[in-house]
Specification:
Layout (H helix, E strand, L loop, with lengths): L6 E7 L6 E6 L4 H11 L8 E5 L20 E6 L1 H11 L5 H14 L3 H9 L2 H11 L5 H14 L11 H12 L5 H14 L4 H10 L2 H8 L4 H17 L2 H13 L2 H10 L7 H15 L3 H4 L8 H14 L1 H4 L8 H14 L19 H13 L1 H12 L9 H15 L23 H19 L7 H16 L6 H10 L2 H15 L5 H28 L1 E6 L5 E9 L5 E7 L13 E4 L3 E6 L13 H9 E6 L4 E6 L3 H14 L7 H18 L34
Parallel strand pairs: 1-4
Antiparallel strand pairs: 1-2, 3-4, 5-6, 6-7, 7-8, 9-10, 10-11
Length: 719
C-alpha cells in the first residue's frame, strides 16, 4: 500500500553517526520530530538542533517549509539557526584573523537561508558587517566574504537599503573606482550598488556622481566576463532609474564613447557564448535606447511651429529642387500655393493643401517627419528616385511616399515595441542594433525603399495600400526573426524576401495549419505516391495510344509537312507516317512506318537531339530546343526526331516514352499532376478528421493483459 499522504519517508544524517531512515509525520510538531531523532542518537538538548537539506542550498527545515519535503529526501541534523547565528556573531568580532575569516566565510554561505538571516539580523549582526567595511582596510579574502554575506542578508528585505550610512556606501563605491583591487570584490561591490540604485532617488544621485559612466565603461572593457556582467547590470540600473532627460544625456554620452560598437564587437561576437543575463541586459539597453523616440512618436505636429514647418518644406524642396528655384516674384501668392499643393500631392500627402494635418496622428506623430527628413538628407538620391518615379506613374499606381512613411513608422514602432515598458525577463535583442548609431532611422531608410519595391511587385493601386503595408510588415518581421547581425545583411535578406516568396511561405504555413504537413499525413502521402504515379503512367500511355500530330521542320527550319505518331493498344509498337493537312486522328492501319518498343534504346531531349545540333540562332531555335526529343532505336541506332507542338505535349510524350523504356518520368508536368492528385486524395481521406488534431506520433499500443480470464467462456453458455 502507498504511504499515507501526511507521511514522508526520508533519511537523516549526522557526522560520525549511522543515518536514520524514518517516516516523517507531517502532522507531528517539528520539535517532537527533532526530539525523537536526538533521542535515537542519545543527544541531549534537542532544542539546540535543527534539520536542513543535505544537498543544494542546505535550507533549514521549518514549520512553514516542511511540506516541501519529498519522499527520498536526505536531511542533516545540524546546529539550530539561533545557535549558529550567535556563534558566528561572536566569531566575526574575533581578534584572531583566521577565526574571523572562517566565520565570515560560513556567514556568507548560511545567509542565503531566510531563517538563519532573520536570527543573525535580530542580533544586530549587520552593524558588525558595516564596521568591518567602514573601518577595515583589508581588500582580500576577508572583505570578499563580508560583502558576500552582506549581499545575501540584504536579499531577504528585512532591512531597507536607505538605512545604509553614507560612509558605508562611499566605501563600496571606492572599491568600484579602485584599479588595484581583487575582481571578486569589485563584482560584489557593483552588485550591491545595482541593488541600491533603484530604491531611492538620493542613492541614485550619490552613485551616479561617484561612479562615472567612464568607470563603468572601463569595467565593461575588461576580459573578466563576470565583472563585465556586473558592470552592465549597474549601467542598466542607473539608466532605468534616471529621468527621461538624464537618460537621454547618458545615452548621448555613451554614443560618443562608441558603446554600441564595443558591445557588437566584443560582447555579442565574443568567442564565449552569450549568457541569459547578459542577453537580458542587452535587450533592456536596446529598449531604453529605442524608447528615446517615444516623445517624438507621441507628439503631434504643431502647424504653428516654424521649425516643424521648415522641416516639412525641406521635403518638398529636396524632391523638387529645380522647380522650386523659380524666383519668388515670378508667381502670385495663389499660384505659388497651388504649386506647393501639387508638389505635396506628388510627395504622397493625403491633405496636400495642409500636409501638417497628415502628421497630427500620434503615434507616429513627429517621428514620421523625422524619418522622412533623415531619408531625404542622408540618402538624397534614393529619396528623389522614390518621389520622381512615382510622380511619373499613373495616379492609381503611384506609391504615396508620405502616407507610406507615416504608416511604416507606426509599423516599426509596433514591431520594436517603442513606448512599451521593458520586460523583466525578455532576452530578445537585435544584434544589428548595436552595430549602428542611428539604428531606427537607418532601418526606416531600408524599409521605405522596400515599400516601393513591394508596391511594384504587387502592381498595387491606392486601394491596395493596406494590403501592401501588411506584406511589408510581414517581410520585416520575418527577416528580423532571423536575427541578422548587421543592417546590410538585413537589407539583403529583406529584399530577397519578395512578394512571391511571401505568398509561398503563406501557402506552406496554411498547409501546416491544415495539418497536411503533419507527420502522419506526410507518411500517408508517401504511401499514396506509388499508386498515383502508376495512374499517371497509365494516363501517359493512353495519350500515346491516342497519338499526336507533329510538324516536320526542314533544314531551313521551315514547317512544311505534317506527320502523325501513335502507340499501339498493346503498347508494343510505335506507328507513324505522313498525313495531309486537316487529318485529325488517322487510323493506325494508315500509318506505314513502325518501331517496335523492344528496339527502342534511349530518349534524347533538347540539345542532345541530332536534329537540333545544326547551327542556328534566334528565338525559333530556342523554342525548338525546348520542344525537341528523339527516340534512338535499332542496332544501328537510327533516330526518330520529334518537335512537340506544345510544352504540354512534350511533357506527356517524354513521360510516356520513359515509361516504355522502364525509366522514371522526369517532366515538370509529372510533379504538378502528382501534387494535384495527392492533394485531392488526401482531402478525401481526411474529410472525417476535420477539426480533429492529428498527433505527430501514434498513440502507444497497450501491453497485452497478464491473463485472459476476462474472456467469456462459451462452454458455460445457458442451456
Amino acid at each position: 500500500m502507498p504511504p499515507p499522504k501526511d507521511v514522508v519517508k526520508i533519511a537523516i544524517q549526522m557526522v560520525g553517526a549511522i543515518p536514520q531512515l524514518i517516516e516523517l509525520q507531517q502532522t507531528k510538531p517539528l520539535a517532537s520530530v527533532l526530539k525523537d531523532v536526538c533521542d535515537a542518537w542519545s543527544l541531549p538538548n534537542a532544542e539546540r538542533y535543527a534539520l536542513q537539506y543535505a544537498d543544494g542550498r542546505q535550507t533549514y527545515i521549518t514549520e512553514s517549509n516542511r511540506r516541501d519535503i519529498k519522499n527520498g529526501s536526505i536531511l542533516r541534523l545540524t546546529t539550530s539557526p539561533d545557535q549558529e547565528a550567535e556563534r558566528l556573531y561572536i566569531g566575526i568580532q574575533s581578534k584572531n584573523v583566521d577565526v574571523k575569516t572562517d566565520s565570515l566565510k560560513k556567514l556568507a554561505s548560511l545567509s542565503q537561508d531566510v531563517t538563519f538571516a532573520q536570527e543573525f539580523i535580530s542580533r544586530n549582526g549587520l552593524k558588525q558587517i558595516y564596521s568591518i567595511v567602514e573601518e577595515g582596510n583589508d581588500t582580500g579574502e576577508m572583505l570578499a566574504h563580508t560583502l558576500k554575506a552582506f549581499t545575501e542578508l540584504m536579499e531577504h528585505d528585512f532591512v531597507s537599503w536607505e538605512n545604509l550610512s553614507t560612509v558605508f556606501i562611499k566605501k563600496i563605491m571606492s572599491y568600484v573606482n579602485m584599479n588595484a583591487v581583487d575582481p571578486s570584490i569589485q563584482q560584489l561591490s557593483l552588485s550591491i550598488l545595482e541593488n541600491m540604485v533603484p530604491t531611492s532617488r538620493l542613492l541614485f544621485e550619490l552613485v551616479r556622481k561617484e561612479v562615472t559612466l567612464d568607470r563603468l565603461l572601463t569595467h565593461l572593457q575588461t576580459t573578466n566576463a563576470e565583472l563585465q556582467l556586473k558592470a552592465m547590470a549597474l549601467l542598466i540600473a542607473v539608466l532605468l532609474s534616471a529621468t527621461d532627460a538624464e537618460r537621454r544625456d547618458m545615452m548621448d554620452y555613451l554614443r560618443e564613447k562608441n558603446l554600441r560598437q564595443f558591445i557588437h564587437k566584443n560582447i555579442i561576437h565574443s568567442s564565449e557564448p552569450l549568457g541569459d543575463e547578459m542577453a537580458h541586459y542587452l535587450y533592456v539597453l536596446q529598449s531604453v535606447s529605442l524608447n528615446l523616440c517615444e516623445h517624438r512618436m507621441k507628439t503631434s505636429m504643431d502647424p504653428y511651429s516654424q521649425e516643424q514647418r521648415d522641416l516639412l518644406q525641406s521635403l518638398r524642396q529636396t524632391a523638387f529642387e529645380s522647380e522650386s528655384e523659380v524666383p519668388a516674384g515670378s508667381f502670385s501668392t495663389e499660384r505659388r500655393r497651388s504649386l506647393c499643393a501639387k508638389e505635396f500631392r506628388k510627395l504622397g500627402f493625403m491633405n496636400n493643401s495642409n500636409p501638417a494635418e497628415d502628421l497630427r496622428r500620434a503615434p507616429p506623430g513627429l517621428l514620421a517627419l523625422d524619418n522622412m527628413v533623415y531619408f531625404s538628407r542622408n540618402t538624397p538620391n534614393a529619396y528623389s528616385r522614390f518621389v520622381l518615379e512615382n510622380s511619373s506613374r499613373e495616379d492609381k499606381h503611384e506609391c504615396p511616399f508620405a502616407r507610406s512613411s507615416i504608416q511604416l513608422t507606426l509599423i516599426l514602432c509596433e514591431i520594436l515595441h517603442i513606448g512599451e515598458p521593458c520586460s523583466e525577463t525578455a532576452q530578445a535583442f537585435y544584434p544589428m542594433f548595436f552595430g549602428q548609431d542611428h539604428f531606427f532611422e537607418e532601418l526606416f531608410c531600408i524599409c521605405i525603399q522596400l515599400v516601393n519595391k513591394t508596391w511594384k511587385e504587387m502592381r498595387a493601386t491606392q486601394e491596395d495600400f493596406d494590403k501592401v503595408m501588411q506584406v511589408v510588415r510581414e517581410q520585416i518581421t520575418r527577416t528580423l526573426s532571423l536575427k541578422p547581425t548587421s543592417l546590410e545583411l538585413f537589407k539583403t535578406r529583406v529584399n530577397t524576401l519578395n512578394y512571391s516568396e511571401i505568398l509561398k511561405l503563406r501557402q506552406t504555413e496554411r498547409l501546416h495549419q491544415e495539418e497536411t504537413l503533419a507527420v502522419p499525413v506526410l507518411e500517408l502521402r508517401e504511401k499514396l505516391k506509388p499508386e498515383l504515379l502508376e495512374l499517371i503512367r497509365q494516363q501517359r500511355l493512353l495519350h500515346l495510344c491516342e497519338g499526336t500530330l507533329f510538324r516536320k521542320i526542314s533544314s531551313r527550319r521551315r514547317q512544311d509537312k505534317l506527320w502523325y505518331c501513335r502507340l499501339s493498344p498493346n503498347h508494343k509498337v510505335l506507328h507513324y507516317g505522313d498525313v495531309e493537312e486537316g487529318v485529325q486522328s488517322p487510323p493506325i492501319e494508315s500509318l506505314p512506318e513502325k518501331i517496335p518498343v523492344a528496339d527502342m534504346k534511349m530518349l534524347l531531349v533538347g540539345k542532345e537531339c541530332p536534329h537540333t545540333k545544326e547551327k542556328s540562332s534566334g528565338k525559333q531555335n530556342k523554342d525548338v530546343l525546348e520542344l525537341a526529343f528523339s527516340i534512338v532505336h535499332d542496332v544501328e541506332e537510327y533516330c526518330l526526331n520529334f518537335i512537340a507542338p506544345t510544352r504540354y505535349e512534350f511533357c506527356l510524350w517524354t513521360d510516356g516514352l520513359n515509361v516504355l523504356l522502364g525509366k522514371e518520368m522526369t517532366s515538370e508536368r509529372t510533379q504538378t499532376d502528382l501534387d494535384v492528385l495527392l492533394s485531392m486524395e488526401l482531402k478525401l481521406r481526411l474529410l472525417d478528421l476535420e477539426n480533429i488534431s492529428i498527433p505527430d506520433n501514434p498513440p502507444p499500443v497497450p501491453k497485452p493483459p497478464s491473463n485472459l480470464n476476462f474472456c467469456y467462456d462459451f462452454s458455460h453458455a445457458e442451456q
